[in-house]
Each structure stands twice: as C-alpha cells, then as structure tokens.
C-alpha cells in the first residue's frame, strides 16, 4: 500500500473518490485498486504534474526519515511523527529542491493533498505493521550432515513479504544458527526482528541459538534480545562442528 500511495501515479479523483475513508488494510487495498481503474486519460496535464510533484515531496520526506533509522531506531509512532514533522517543515518553505524534480515552489502546489497523502500512507504503514504475521516455513534444500536449513517470511495480508528469515538447525547437537534476517529499511524498528526470533524459539524449542557475524547496528538488538529471552542465545561464533 505504501508503494501505491507514494510511488504509483495518483488517480485524479484521489482522495475525493472515497467520501468515507476505508478502514483497515484490506479496505485501503480494495479502494486503491478501484480508483486506479478510474484514472482519466484526459486529466489536465498541469494538474497531474503538480500532484506528482507533491507526491514526490511526501515520498522524499519518507525516504529521508527511513535513512535515519539506523541511527535513530524510531519505533512506528516515533517514525510517523518524525516523518510528519519533516514534511511540515518542507511545506512551510517557499521553495524546495526535490530529487528528480528540481526546485519547486510550494505555493504552486496542493499542500492539502500532501497532508492527506501523508495521513493515508502513515495509516497504511501502521496497519501493515499491526497485521504482520509469520508465514509457514520451508526447507531450503539438503545440507551436508545432520544440519537442516530453513526459511520463513513475515507478511501482512495483500502486501506480500515484508522480510524473510534464514536459519539452520543441528538436532543432534541441540543447536540453531540464525543465518540472516532481511527486512527492507522502511520496516526496520517495527518489531519484526523480535517476532522472527520468537518464532525460531517456538518452532525449535530447547535449542541453543547462535547468530552469524552481524553489522554493528544490529549487534545491540541481538544483545538486548538475549537478555530477555527464555531460550539460550550466545555470542559464540562457532555453534558446532556440523556447520
């Protein structure tokens, strides 16, 4: 839904096309599909350009907020507020430089559209986070020896996969090895990492868990999780001889 609102061309009727705003992620997705079909080919070119420029401003404010996640570690509510504050600061300027658009004059754009677009996109992001669930896993192929590799994804309804987890287990040694957790930057600090690790513990109770070498910004997360988990997690980088 974020892609639909921030990257796809907006229908001419948005947001007036829906007098009563849809509720829930499914409602937003259904609405987006319906209004996308009704895009007028005769829409005024100048208006279309202005709307595209405002969408680019909202999108760039979003991307700049995402870029701060590795240092700020904002949770969903704090992220939404930071995004809103950044957008408001941009709309308060006389002109702004936007990637791909050059210098834009704010007074020539529909700032009301920008605010409503932020509201819809922010709500869609929150709905996606709230509805995220762990999907059934699959075996990733035969390993050598007793180790078995698996993967599963975390998804939210129609949005498809938000990220995936790759890991392996060695039942004879009672060891699990977390190989990789991958989420795109816009879903960092949304609780998905914690959800993934709890799922590992639920699917394979009683194992001692290891991780591969992690980037510096992820090490703090794993360290904090180890302290509050009921399962043993270790910083040791040598799980067992079978890996």
Q: What composes the largest sheet?
A: 6 strands, mixed
Strands, total number:
8
Amino-to-carboxy terminus distance: 40 Å
Low-pLDDT stretches: 17-22
Structural account:
Helix 3 packs across helix 5 (76-91) and helix 5 (76-91) runs antiparallel to helix 6. 44% of the residues lie in helices and 18% in strands. A hairpin with a 5-residue loop joins strand 5 (147-155) and strand 6. The chain has 243 residues and is α+β, with helices and mostly antiparallel strands. The strands form 2 sheets. Strands 3, 4, 5, 6, 7 and 8 form a 6-stranded mixed β-sheet that branches. Strands 1-2 form a two-stranded antiparallel sheet.
What layout of secondary structure does this protein have?
Layout: H1 2-6, H2 24-37, H3 45-67, H4 69-72, H5 76-91, E1 95-98, E2 102-105, H6 111-131, E3 133-134, E4 138-139, E5 147-155, E6 161-170, E7 175-183, H7 192-203, E8 208-211, H8 216-228
Parallel strand pairs: 7-8
Antiparallel strand pairs: 1-2, 3-5, 4-5, 5-6, 6-7
Helix pairs in contact: 3-5, 3-6, 5-6
What descriptors fit this protein?
243 residues; alpha+beta; Aminopeptidase; 2 domains; six-stranded mixed β-sheet; two-stranded antiparallel ribbon; 8 helices; 18% strand
Describe the structure in brief.
The chain is an alpha+beta fold and 243 residues long. Helix content is 44%, strand content 18%. The strands form two sheets. Strands 3, 4, 5, 6, 7 and 8 form a six-stranded mixed sheet that branches. Strands 1-2 form a two-stranded antiparallel sheet.
């Amino acid at each position: 839904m974020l892609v639909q609102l921030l990257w796809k061309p907006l229908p001419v009727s948005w947001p007036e096309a829906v007098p009563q705003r849809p509720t829930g992620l499914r409602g937003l997705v259904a609405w987006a599909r319906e209004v996308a079909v009704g895009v007028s080919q005769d829409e005024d070119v100048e208006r279309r350009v202005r709307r595209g420029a405002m969408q680019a401003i909202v999108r760039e404010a979003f991307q700049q907020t995402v870029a701060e996640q590795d240092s700020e570690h904002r949770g969903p509510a704090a992220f939404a507020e930071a995004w809103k504050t950044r957008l408001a600061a941009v709309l308060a300027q006389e002109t702004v430089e936007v990637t791909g658009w050059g210098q834009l004059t704010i007074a020539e754009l529909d700032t009301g559209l920008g605010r409503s677009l932020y509201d819809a996109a922010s709500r869609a992001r929150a709905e996606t986070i709230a509805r995220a669930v762990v999907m059934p896993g699959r075996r990733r192929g035969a390993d050598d020896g007793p180790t078995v590799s698996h993967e599963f994804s975390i998804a939210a309804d129609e949005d498809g996969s938000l990220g995936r987890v790759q890991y392996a287990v060695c039942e004879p040694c009672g060891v699990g090895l977390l190989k990789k957790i991958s989420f795109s930057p816009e879903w960092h600090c949304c609780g998905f990492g914690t959800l993934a690790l709890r799922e590992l513990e639920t699917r394979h109770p009683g194992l001692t868990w290891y991780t591969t070498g992690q980037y510096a910004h992820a090490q703090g997360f794993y360290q904090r999780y180890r302290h509050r988990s009921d399962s043993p997690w270790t910083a040791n980088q040598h799980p067992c001889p079978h890996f």
